[in-house]
Amino acid sequence: MTITFTRGITDPTLDPALGANSAPILENHPTQSATTINGWGAVLFGVPFLAVGVWISLAALRVVNVSKPVPDAVIGIFGALFFLSGAFFLIHGLVGVARKWRYLRAAAQRPGEPWLYDFHWHQEGVAFSAFDAMIGRLVAALLWSAFLVPFFWIGLNVRGAMIFAIFASLFALAGLAFWYRWLQMLADLIRYGNSFLSYDSFPYSLGGTLRARLRAPHHMEDIDALTLTLRCVQEKYVTTGSGQNRSTRVVCYEIYKEEATLDRERLAGYAGAEIPVEFHVPADQPTTNLASAPPIYWEIQSCGNSSKINYEAYFLVPVYKAP
User: Fold this and answer.
1) For the whole model, what pTM was predicted?
2) pLDDT tens sequence across 149-199
3) Which of 71, 138, 197, 283 could form a disulfide with 207 if both were Cys (CB 3.0 to 4.6 A apart)?
4) Which CATH number does the domain 1-30+194-323 belong to among 3.90.226.10, 2.170.130.30, 3.50.30.10, 2.60.40.640?
5) Using CA atoms, how far apart are residues 284 and 108, in angstroms rounded to an integer?
6) Which of 208, 188, 227 minimizes the C-alpha distance to 10?
């Protein structure tokens, strides 16, 4: 029976825009930031999209009388996409404003206990919903596909507009990654189900020991090796390009990590039980700050390698400075 521990950061993928001393980038890592625009900025950004979406939808429903060279259904798709985008930013912004107000009020009342208001922690532990992750990816894939439908219609039905269909085809090929990832998540859910990490104490302290218990997933006999990773993640809003080609995205940087790997023989002893998790948390690392935008947080990632279907789950853990 073997348990392998590794510490530090290996094989970094650096961001050229930030120089050679930047932390490794976590590609395809789930983010806590829903978007790079927050608060009142998101509200102001969303209102025009919402208004345009309503106007286009009214045109598709023939409430507004306008000249329409394309069918009402195609116009309706455009209207729905604009409306949903605007509604998302509007709600996201208002929720962010309310959350910040609650945070500032609680911080003034209990300045030495940020774990009570930084995030909606449950002191018994944290769940990873493979179902929610799968649904989120499915929605993203459907929205991407719906966005391309009007361009395909224009390219295939309007004379001299074939370029629209060509570009839509290229984007559709890129969108296959959404559907492939969704199939992976669906298979993960069906095979292993949801996961839960129980905290042995709350909160955890920088410089202390993090002990927790992972509820063993279903069909653990399929897993050849289970890797548990304690990681500190810092999200940043990174802007690339210039002018009309300028874009901003959420990038996850790995500030610290430590891994422990359990082989098949070791895992067999935990079948149907809980897997103990234990890491030392360095004292010189950042504290959790999920209320900030962008946030810094600690997590435990659980990855099971299998010849059939791989297992993957992420769990936020409350790591703060000792009071």
Assistant:
1) 0.84
2) 888 888 888 888 888 889 889 999 988 988 999 999 999 999 999 999 999
3) 283
4) 2.60.40.640
5) 26
6) 227
